[in-house]
Amino acid sequence: MLWGPPGCGKTMLAKAIANECSSNFISVKGPELLTMWFGESEANVREVFDKARMAAPCILFFDELDAIAKSRGGSLGDAGGAGDRVMNQLLTEMDGINPQKQVFFVGATNRPDIIDPALKRPGRLDQTIFIDLPDFPARANVFKACLRKSPLDPDVDIEWFSEKTEGYSGADIAGICKMAARIAIRNSINAELEREKKKVKKRADAEAAGTEYNEEEDPEFKDDPVPTITKKMLMFALKESKPSVTRSQYQQYLDMKKKFDSEKVGDVGFDDLDEQAAPSGGASGNASARNFADEADEDEELDNIYG
After folding, report:
1. Cα separation of 246 and 260, whole Å?
2. Closest Cα partner for 29 from 78, 70, 68?
3. Residue 171 pLDDT grade (very low, low, confident, very high; cuts 50, 70, 90)
4. Counting Cβ atoms within 10 Å, is residue 107 exposed (0-12), middle (13-18) or buried (19+)?
5. Residue-level pLDDT at 274
6. What residue ranges define each of the domains in the chain, with the CATH number in brackets?
7. Which of 252, 179, 225, 202 is closest to 6 using CA atoms?
Protein backbone atom coordinates (compact mmCIF):
# COMPACT_ATOMS: atom_id res chain seq x y z
CA MET A 1 0.00 0.00 0.00
CA LEU A 2 1.40 3.36 -1.08
CA TRP A 3 0.41 6.27 1.10
CA GLY A 4 1.49 9.85 1.57
CA PRO A 5 0.58 13.45 0.79
CA PRO A 6 -1.39 14.09 -2.40
CA GLY A 7 0.51 14.80 -5.59
CA CYS A 8 3.66 12.83 -4.72
CA GLY A 9 3.40 10.35 -7.60
CA LYS A 10 1.79 7.28 -6.03
CA THR A 11 -0.17 6.48 -9.20
CA MET A 12 2.83 7.10 -11.45
CA LEU A 13 4.95 4.86 -9.21
CA ALA A 14 2.46 2.01 -9.62
CA LYS A 15 2.52 2.46 -13.40
CA ALA A 16 6.32 2.44 -13.35
CA ILE A 17 6.25 -0.85 -11.41
CA ALA A 18 4.02 -2.41 -14.05
CA ASN A 19 6.27 -1.10 -16.83
CA GLU A 20 9.42 -2.47 -15.22
CA CYS A 21 7.80 -5.86 -14.65
CA SER A 22 6.41 -5.99 -18.22
CA SER A 23 3.00 -6.76 -16.76
CA ASN A 24 -0.51 -5.64 -17.59
CA PHE A 25 -1.80 -2.73 -15.55
CA ILE A 26 -5.40 -2.21 -14.45
CA SER A 27 -6.13 1.02 -12.63
CA VAL A 28 -9.38 1.39 -10.70
CA LYS A 29 -10.61 4.44 -8.84
CA GLY A 30 -12.24 3.45 -5.57
CA PRO A 31 -15.42 5.53 -5.97
CA GLU A 32 -16.02 4.00 -9.43
CA LEU A 33 -17.05 0.72 -7.82
CA LEU A 34 -19.79 2.22 -5.66
CA THR A 35 -23.32 2.41 -7.05
CA MET A 36 -26.78 3.07 -5.66
CA TRP A 37 -28.10 -0.41 -6.53
CA PHE A 38 -28.10 -3.16 -3.95
CA GLY A 39 -25.42 -5.76 -4.61
CA GLU A 40 -24.02 -4.08 -7.72
CA SER A 41 -20.99 -2.62 -5.92
CA GLU A 42 -19.89 -6.09 -4.84
CA ALA A 43 -20.42 -7.34 -8.40
CA ASN A 44 -18.15 -4.56 -9.68
CA VAL A 45 -15.40 -5.72 -7.31
CA ARG A 46 -15.75 -9.32 -8.56
CA GLU A 47 -15.65 -8.16 -12.18
CA VAL A 48 -12.43 -6.19 -11.63
CA PHE A 49 -10.67 -9.17 -10.08
CA ASP A 50 -11.93 -11.47 -12.85
CA LYS A 51 -10.38 -9.16 -15.44
CA ALA A 52 -7.12 -9.14 -13.51
CA ARG A 53 -7.01 -12.96 -13.40
CA MET A 54 -7.62 -13.20 -17.14
CA ALA A 55 -4.90 -10.59 -17.84
CA ALA A 56 -2.28 -12.26 -15.60
CA PRO A 57 0.50 -11.42 -15.03
CA CYS A 58 -1.18 -8.23 -13.96
CA ILE A 59 -0.85 -5.42 -11.44
CA LEU A 60 -4.24 -4.38 -10.07
CA PHE A 61 -4.00 -0.82 -8.78
CA PHE A 62 -6.71 0.69 -6.58
CA ASP A 63 -6.45 4.45 -6.35
CA GLU A 64 -8.29 6.31 -3.56
CA LEU A 65 -8.45 3.06 -1.61
CA ASP A 66 -9.93 4.78 1.43
CA ALA A 67 -13.21 5.25 -0.48
CA ILE A 68 -13.98 1.51 -0.38
CA ALA A 69 -11.74 0.18 2.40
CA LYS A 70 -12.81 2.14 5.45
CA SER A 71 -12.94 0.45 8.83
CA ARG A 72 -16.08 -1.63 9.12
CA GLY A 73 -18.79 -0.97 11.64
CA GLY A 74 -19.25 2.73 11.04
CA SER A 75 -21.67 2.60 8.07
CA LEU A 76 -25.02 2.64 9.87
CA GLY A 77 -26.52 5.17 7.49
CA ASP A 78 -24.69 3.87 4.44
CA ALA A 79 -27.58 2.32 2.51
CA GLY A 80 -27.75 -0.76 4.67
CA GLY A 81 -24.00 -1.14 5.14
CA ALA A 82 -22.95 -1.04 1.48
CA GLY A 83 -19.41 0.02 2.44
CA ASP A 84 -19.03 -3.01 4.74
CA ARG A 85 -20.28 -5.38 2.04
CA VAL A 86 -17.83 -3.96 -0.51
CA MET A 87 -15.03 -4.30 2.03
CA ASN A 88 -15.96 -7.94 2.74
CA GLN A 89 -16.07 -8.71 -0.98
CA LEU A 90 -12.68 -7.06 -1.46
CA LEU A 91 -11.12 -9.19 1.28
CA THR A 92 -12.69 -12.34 -0.17
CA GLU A 93 -11.33 -11.64 -3.66
CA MET A 94 -7.86 -10.87 -2.33
CA ASP A 95 -7.78 -14.16 -0.42
CA GLY A 96 -8.93 -15.99 -3.55
CA ILE A 97 -5.85 -15.00 -5.56
CA ASN A 98 -3.25 -17.78 -5.45
CA PRO A 99 0.42 -17.38 -6.43
CA GLN A 100 -0.12 -19.19 -9.75
CA LYS A 101 -2.41 -16.40 -10.98
CA GLN A 102 0.39 -13.78 -10.71
CA VAL A 103 -1.96 -10.94 -9.79
CA PHE A 104 -0.38 -8.27 -7.62
CA PHE A 105 -2.57 -5.92 -5.63
CA VAL A 106 -1.37 -2.34 -5.08
CA GLY A 107 -3.37 0.35 -3.33
CA ALA A 108 -2.83 4.09 -2.88
CA THR A 109 -4.43 6.39 -0.34
CA ASN A 110 -3.99 9.71 1.39
CA ARG A 111 -5.76 8.47 4.54
CA PRO A 112 -4.12 5.29 5.81
CA ASP A 113 -5.49 5.92 9.30
CA ILE A 114 -9.06 5.02 8.25
CA ILE A 115 -8.16 1.85 6.32
CA ASP A 116 -9.63 -1.34 7.80
CA PRO A 117 -6.96 -3.25 9.79
CA ALA A 118 -8.00 -6.52 8.13
CA LEU A 119 -6.75 -5.18 4.80
CA LYS A 120 -3.26 -4.63 6.22
CA ARG A 121 -2.73 -8.06 7.72
CA PRO A 122 0.05 -10.32 6.35
CA GLY A 123 -0.88 -11.84 3.02
CA ARG A 124 -2.88 -8.82 1.87
CA LEU A 125 -1.54 -5.26 1.90
CA ASP A 126 1.07 -6.08 4.51
CA GLN A 127 3.71 -3.72 3.05
CA THR A 128 3.00 -0.03 3.62
CA ILE A 129 5.33 2.40 1.84
CA PHE A 130 5.37 6.10 2.68
CA ILE A 131 5.76 8.32 -0.40
CA ASP A 132 7.25 11.53 0.95
CA LEU A 133 7.46 14.98 -0.61
CA PRO A 134 10.33 15.19 -3.12
CA ASP A 135 13.71 16.34 -1.87
CA PHE A 136 16.09 18.61 -3.79
CA PRO A 137 17.40 16.01 -6.32
CA ALA A 138 13.88 14.69 -6.86
CA ARG A 139 12.50 18.19 -7.50
CA ALA A 140 15.26 18.84 -10.03
CA ASN A 141 14.43 15.59 -11.81
CA VAL A 142 10.72 16.49 -11.84
CA PHE A 143 11.51 19.84 -13.45
CA LYS A 144 13.68 18.14 -16.08
CA ALA A 145 11.03 15.49 -16.79
CA CYS A 146 8.22 18.05 -17.16
CA LEU A 147 10.30 20.34 -19.40
CA ARG A 148 12.09 17.70 -21.46
CA LYS A 149 9.79 18.17 -24.49
CA SER A 150 9.57 21.96 -24.20
CA PRO A 151 12.05 24.41 -25.75
CA LEU A 152 13.84 25.78 -22.72
CA ASP A 153 15.97 28.90 -22.63
CA PRO A 154 19.63 28.22 -21.74
CA ASP A 155 19.47 30.85 -18.99
CA VAL A 156 16.98 28.77 -16.97
CA ASP A 157 18.66 27.35 -13.86
CA ILE A 158 16.83 24.18 -12.83
CA GLU A 159 18.75 23.96 -9.53
CA TRP A 160 17.66 27.47 -8.54
CA PHE A 161 13.99 26.65 -9.08
CA SER A 162 14.46 23.36 -7.21
CA GLU A 163 15.70 25.29 -4.17
CA LYS A 164 12.78 27.72 -4.33
CA THR A 165 10.18 24.91 -4.44
CA GLU A 166 10.97 23.25 -1.12
CA GLY A 167 7.76 21.75 0.29
CA TYR A 168 6.15 21.47 -3.16
CA SER A 169 4.83 18.13 -4.35
CA GLY A 170 5.53 16.64 -7.75
CA ALA A 171 2.10 17.72 -8.97
CA ASP A 172 2.77 21.30 -7.83
CA ILE A 173 6.02 21.40 -9.80
CA ALA A 174 4.28 19.95 -12.86
CA GLY A 175 1.65 22.68 -12.50
CA ILE A 176 4.38 25.37 -12.50
CA CYS A 177 5.83 23.96 -15.73
CA LYS A 178 2.37 23.81 -17.37
CA MET A 179 1.62 27.38 -16.35
CA ALA A 180 4.95 28.55 -17.83
CA ALA A 181 4.09 26.74 -21.07
CA ARG A 182 0.68 28.42 -21.17
CA ILE A 183 2.33 31.82 -20.66
CA ALA A 184 4.67 31.09 -23.57
CA ILE A 185 1.71 30.10 -25.78
CA ARG A 186 -0.19 33.24 -24.79
CA ASN A 187 2.82 35.44 -25.56
CA SER A 188 3.27 33.67 -28.89
CA ILE A 189 -0.37 34.29 -29.85
CA ASN A 190 -0.09 37.97 -28.91
CA ALA A 191 3.12 38.28 -30.93
CA GLU A 192 1.45 36.69 -33.96
CA LEU A 193 -1.43 39.15 -33.72
CA GLU A 194 1.05 42.02 -33.64
CA ARG A 195 2.79 40.55 -36.67
CA GLU A 196 -0.47 40.39 -38.61
CA LYS A 197 -1.13 44.04 -37.84
CA LYS A 198 2.35 44.98 -39.09
CA LYS A 199 1.87 42.90 -42.24
CA VAL A 200 -1.43 44.62 -43.01
CA LYS A 201 0.17 48.01 -42.50
CA LYS A 202 3.17 47.19 -44.72
CA ARG A 203 0.88 45.74 -47.39
CA ALA A 204 -1.21 48.93 -47.37
CA ASP A 205 1.92 51.11 -47.60
CA ALA A 206 3.21 49.04 -50.52
CA GLU A 207 -0.10 49.37 -52.39
CA ALA A 208 -0.11 53.12 -51.79
CA ALA A 209 3.43 53.33 -53.18
CA GLY A 210 2.48 51.17 -56.17
CA THR A 211 4.86 48.35 -55.27
CA GLU A 212 4.34 44.70 -54.46
CA TYR A 213 4.91 43.48 -50.89
CA ASN A 214 6.07 39.89 -50.34
CA GLU A 215 5.69 39.00 -46.64
CA GLU A 216 7.51 35.68 -47.04
CA GLU A 217 10.74 37.45 -47.94
CA ASP A 218 10.49 39.98 -45.13
CA PRO A 219 13.28 39.14 -42.63
CA GLU A 220 11.31 40.69 -39.78
CA PHE A 221 8.78 37.82 -39.81
CA LYS A 222 11.05 34.83 -40.34
CA ASP A 223 12.06 34.18 -36.73
CA ASP A 224 9.81 32.72 -34.05
CA PRO A 225 8.70 35.55 -31.72
CA VAL A 226 8.64 33.26 -28.64
CA PRO A 227 11.08 30.43 -29.36
CA THR A 228 11.62 29.19 -25.79
CA ILE A 229 10.26 29.15 -22.25
CA THR A 230 12.25 31.82 -20.45
CA LYS A 231 13.26 32.21 -16.83
CA LYS A 232 10.87 35.13 -16.47
CA MET A 233 7.93 32.91 -17.44
CA LEU A 234 8.91 30.26 -14.90
CA MET A 235 9.38 32.88 -12.18
CA PHE A 236 5.93 34.31 -12.88
CA ALA A 237 4.44 30.80 -12.73
CA LEU A 238 6.27 30.15 -9.44
CA LYS A 239 4.97 33.41 -8.02
CA GLU A 240 1.38 32.48 -8.88
CA SER A 241 1.62 29.00 -7.32
CA LYS A 242 1.72 27.72 -3.76
CA PRO A 243 2.24 24.31 -2.13
CA SER A 244 -0.85 22.13 -2.05
CA VAL A 245 0.28 20.50 1.22
CA THR A 246 0.54 22.92 4.12
CA ARG A 247 3.06 22.55 6.93
CA SER A 248 0.41 21.41 9.40
CA GLN A 249 -0.89 18.79 6.99
CA TYR A 250 2.61 17.53 6.28
CA GLN A 251 3.29 17.28 10.01
CA GLN A 252 0.19 15.12 10.36
CA TYR A 253 1.59 12.72 7.76
CA LEU A 254 4.91 12.59 9.60
CA ASP A 255 3.10 11.84 12.87
CA MET A 256 1.20 9.02 11.18
CA LYS A 257 4.46 7.63 9.83
CA LYS A 258 5.97 7.59 13.31
CA LYS A 259 2.86 5.86 14.63
CA PHE A 260 2.92 3.17 11.93
CA ASP A 261 6.66 2.62 12.38
CA SER A 262 6.21 2.15 16.12
CA GLU A 263 3.47 -0.42 15.52
CA LYS A 264 5.71 -2.55 13.33
CA VAL A 265 7.71 -5.37 14.86
CA GLY A 266 11.32 -4.25 15.17
CA ASP A 267 13.95 -5.97 13.10
CA VAL A 268 15.90 -8.53 15.11
CA GLY A 269 19.48 -9.17 14.10
CA PHE A 270 21.48 -12.36 14.52
CA ASP A 271 23.25 -10.95 17.58
CA ASP A 272 19.89 -10.22 19.18
CA LEU A 273 18.74 -13.73 18.42
CA ASP A 274 21.79 -15.15 20.18
CA GLU A 275 21.21 -12.97 23.23
CA GLN A 276 17.46 -13.67 23.36
CA ALA A 277 17.77 -17.39 22.76
CA ALA A 278 16.67 -19.83 25.41
CA PRO A 279 19.52 -20.52 27.85
CA SER A 280 21.28 -23.82 27.43
CA GLY A 281 23.04 -25.93 30.03
CA GLY A 282 26.46 -24.47 29.33
CA ALA A 283 25.26 -20.88 29.02
CA SER A 284 23.54 -20.40 32.37
CA GLY A 285 23.91 -21.92 35.75
CA ASN A 286 20.17 -21.70 36.44
CA ALA A 287 19.29 -24.01 33.57
CA SER A 288 20.13 -27.67 33.96
CA ALA A 289 21.21 -29.87 31.07
CA ARG A 290 18.60 -32.26 29.77
CA ASN A 291 19.43 -35.86 30.70
CA PHE A 292 17.97 -38.16 28.05
CA ALA A 293 19.17 -41.24 29.94
CA ASP A 294 17.03 -40.38 32.99
CA GLU A 295 14.03 -39.75 30.70
CA ALA A 296 14.54 -43.15 29.11
CA ASP A 297 14.57 -44.79 32.59
CA GLU A 298 11.32 -43.02 33.49
CA ASP A 299 9.71 -44.30 30.29
CA GLU A 300 10.76 -47.86 31.15
CA GLU A 301 9.25 -47.54 34.65
CA LEU A 302 5.96 -46.39 33.14
CA ASP A 303 6.02 -49.32 30.75
CA ASN A 304 6.51 -51.66 33.72
CA ILE A 305 3.56 -50.11 35.56
CA TYR A 306 1.19 -50.61 32.66
CA GLY A 307 2.75 -53.89 31.69
Report:
1. 21
2. 68
3. very high
4. buried
5. 52
6. 2-130 (3.40.50.300), 136-246 (1.10.8.60)
7. 252
